[in-house]
Write a structure and sequence with these properties.
Elements lengths: L2 E8 L8 H4 L4 E10 L2 E9 L16 E10 L2 E9 L5 H8 L3 E6 L3 E8 L2 H13 L5 E7 L6 H5 L2 H13 L10 H8 L3 H20 L8
Helix pairs in contact: 2-3, 5-7, 6-7
């Protein structure tokens, strides 16, 4: 099921965000990504400024192997970057997961990027990989092209959703519990261990999505 998703990332957490330190009023639009050997090559437009040396506006970044101006029209500059795959960031995750990028626009506040997955699992995998690398992405919208799915349906597998709905309906989450894992397993035709695994996986996925972007600062 083809699904489109929109994510946001703080401006300083996204590659190319160093430009906002010197040019805070510009808008950066990522046009396309070209995978190559050991690097990924983003082409992007910088709009809203007139400078003699646009490349120098991008301060040194460990992910950038090279940057050069390709074209310019008045206050718009098309640039090409060679981005190393050894530096973990959203660009490398996009290349790693082969998830198509529709558009990415950056300002000095945040980056907003739209991606498309052939299957909803592609979106989930992209999200999971970003979290694994501590990239603070926030999911802001989901659009299932056919038919409409809820956010929960995108996050969970079909078996996790089935187990969670049944457990909730039967009172598994009440205190005291009104049903056992064994009884749930009998209804689903699986072992109680398998039910427990599906519930844990589903709860982890839901919490991971709900708590994404939140941090705790213990005293």
């Amino acid at each position: 099921m083809v699904t489109e998703a929109t994510f946001t990332v703080p401006s300083d957490q996204f590659p190319l965000g160093t430009v906002f330190k010197q040019l805070p009023d510009v808008t950066v639009t990522l046009e396309r990504l070209v995978p190559a050997q050991n690097v990924v090559i983003p082409y992007f437009w910088v709009r809203g400024t007139e400078v003699a040396d646009i490349e120098s506006a991008f301060t040194e970044h460990p992910g950038v192997q090279g940057i050069r101006l390709v074209d310019s029209v008045e206050d718009e500059y098309l640039l090409r970057v060679e981005w190393t795959l050894e530096y973990d960031d959203v660009l490398t995750v996009l290349a790693e997961t082969s998830i198509p990028l529709i558009e990415a626009i950056g300002t000095n506040k945040q980056w907003t990027f739209d991606v498309r997955g052939d299957e909803r699992r592609d979106i989930v995998e992209f999200q999971r990989r970003c979290r694994e690398l501590d990239i603070p992405i926030t999911l802001t919208s989901l659009t299932a092209l056919t038919p409409v799915e809820t956010a929960i349906e995108v996050i969970l597998t079909d078996t996790q959703l089935e187990a969670l709905v049944l457990a909730y309906d039967r009172g598994y989450f009440e205190s005291p519990r009104e049903v056992t894992l064994e009884a749930l397993g009998e209804e689903l035709g699986i072992s109680q261990q398998a039910v427990g695994s599906r519930l844990r996986g589903g709860i982890k996925a839901v919490l991971g999505d709900a708590l994404s972007g939140h941090t705790v600062n213990p005293e």
